Amino acid sequence: MIIDNTSEPTISDFTGLALEAGFTYAAPLAMDALIFRPEVRSMCAADLCKSYDKCWSCPPAAGTLEHITGKAAGYSRGIIVQTSGKLKDDFDMASIRDISVRHSACFDTLVRQIKTLKPSCLPMGAGACTRCRRCTYPDRPCRHPDKLWPSMEAYGLLVSDVCVKSGLGYNYGSGTMTFTSCILID
Ligand code: SF4
Predict the structure, then answer these.
(1) Closest residue by CA, ligand 1 atom 5
(2) Which residues contact 64 (CB under 8 A, 6 or more apart)?
(3) Which has more confidence, 8 or 141?
(4) CA nearest ligand 1 atom 3, residue
(5) Which is the closest atom of ligand 1 to the Cα of 56?
(6) H helices of 118-179, where?
(7) Which of 72, 95, 162, 178 is the most buried (most CB within 10 A)?
(8) For the residues 15-40, what does the mean pLDDT come to?
(9) Are 73 and 166 in contact (CB under 8 A)?
(10) Ligand 1, residues 51, 52, 54, 57: which to mutate, most atoms within 8 A of Cβ?
C-alpha cells in the first residue's frame, strides 16, 4: 500500500497498512478507552504473568503510571492491531510462541512504516518484550532502546476493555490465542 505523504494519512490508511503487514485484525483505537488504571498496575505488581521486575518494558522499569501516561497525553487517534491463531490445546506452547513471534514481527514492520509518516507515534506492545533471548534487565541497559515499547498493561490499560470498545474481540474462543498492541498517532 502506498500512502500519499503529501496529504494527511487517515486512520483507515494506517489500518490498511496494518493488515498488509500481516495482522489478523486492525481497527481504529477507541480513544475514550484509554483509561490509565492504577488497578491494572497493581495486577502487574501481583506478577500473575511472571514479568514483573524482569524486563525493561514492564513495571517497575517502564516507569511510574504518572510518568508513562504523561507520554500518552495529547494523542488524538490511534490504531489497535491483533494477531490471532489456533492452538492444538491449552498447553500448545509452540503455537503460542509462533503467534507471539508473528505478532512481534508484524508490529516491528508496522511501527517502522508508521514512523516514516509520523515519527512521534507512540507504540504500546503486547506484554513483556521478548526481542532478546535473555533481557539485560536489570544489570545492563536495554539492547534496543529504539524498539523498546512498554506494554499496554504498563500504561495501566485494561486490554480487554480497549479491544471491545474498539470493536474487536479480546478472546476469539477456546483453542485460540490472540496478542494485542496499539499505536497512538498524532
Ligand atoms: S530489547 Fe532485549 S534488552 Fe531490551 S527490553 Fe527487550 S528483551 Fe530486554
Answers:
(1) 56
(2) none
(3) 141
(4) 142
(5) 5
(6) 159-165
(7) 162
(8) 97
(9) no
(10) 57
